[in-house]
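Next up, sample data.

:::
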Amino acid sequence: MTSQTSRTPSRAFRAPLAPGRASRASDPAGGAGPVAALAVGHAAVDLYQGVVPALIPFLVAGHGLGYLAASGVMLAATLLSSIVQPLFGALTDRWAMPWLIPAATVVAGAGVGAAGLFGSYPLVCAAVALSGIGVAAYHPESARLARAASGAGHTRMGWYSLGGNIGFALAPLLTGPVLAAGGLAATPWLVLPALAAAVLTAPVVRSLAARTAAAQAAARAGAGRDGAGRDDWPAFLRLSAVIGCRSVVFVGLSAFVALFAGQRFGGGAGGGSGAGTAALFALFAGGAVGTVLGGWLAGRWGRVRTVRWAYAAAVPAVAGLLLVPGPALYGFAAAVSLALYVPFSLQVTLGQDYLPSRIGTASGVTLGLAVSVGGVAGPVIGLLADHVGLRAALAPLALLCAVSWWIARGLPEPAEVVVAAAEGAPVAAAAVPVPEGPGRAGRA
């Protein structure tokens, strides 16, 4: 993150902040408005991540795909995206790229809009891969600007992440009716949210990038001068392992829960049955509540402890979704989403605090892993489902939640924030140690 302004900070504060509290100085000028705009853009981009699994029942019906081929569509949407997202993160660590946010939004929508127009399976995969590249380009720069505008604490980053959760949740509600009415040929209509979000967010992100550049340069210069804010790669790699396990669970369920519900309630393996759409909505909608709850719990008990308990709660939730009969499936789908999204925005800020000098890289890796490993594992789940059935293929996902909990036990609670300001610039954040307080000591 470079800037044309002076890198000499005019003042810095290193007062430890109580859990869940942020000083007034840590609130960037006008921070709430830009974060709200970024949350709207985030909703539009993550809508397209949710559209891909919502498309799968229609692709199964329209192209006669098996479980393995269906999971290949998810792989196409996530694999290339996961490879390039850290690269975009590294680029945004060197140069501010606010223009990338609206451009990436349009690319994400265009890929999904084209996916239903092709009768060729490779071309369908290429279209969703293009959408995935747009998603990958969007997140590092957007998360960097959102963190800069959020200041200290986790609440505003939680609202930014909430925007993405809302987009996910709306995806099946938008996709189902559009494709039920017009078939796969109607996918170009799905581009409209991307165009609207790009027009809305472009001027906001340009203004925010200009206003945060000086403060970020000041905070970085201060951290480098006194040795604060050193990168903690071992902790970051451990966090990445936690996120990778979560990715397999969430992406695996995203790809197959609609088909699983359709089978259970008589909708069949193909087609966009109402049962499948409702199950997918429940899986995505619980994430909105989980994100807000995660920010509140982190303020009270600390981020790492909250992450541990969330993964512990996910184990019985996944098991119940697969094993408990009847309409309880929808409740368990929402519980799974709640448990998996409580740690979501916390993991993003943990990654940024473990690598305070590489915010873009940390954002790219953590947000990329959130979908990439699951996309790679999807074909394995699909192949297994073709041989032993869908329920048996999904059962190991409960065990992976337990693995996430176990790995997270070794995560340290990182430093809190240094608030540094340059003259005439809003406030930015960097890391400094915080003494243990209530809820921060010990392991869950």
In short: The beta strands are 11-13, 416-421, 427-432. Confidence is low (pLDDT under 50) at residues 1-30, 416-444.
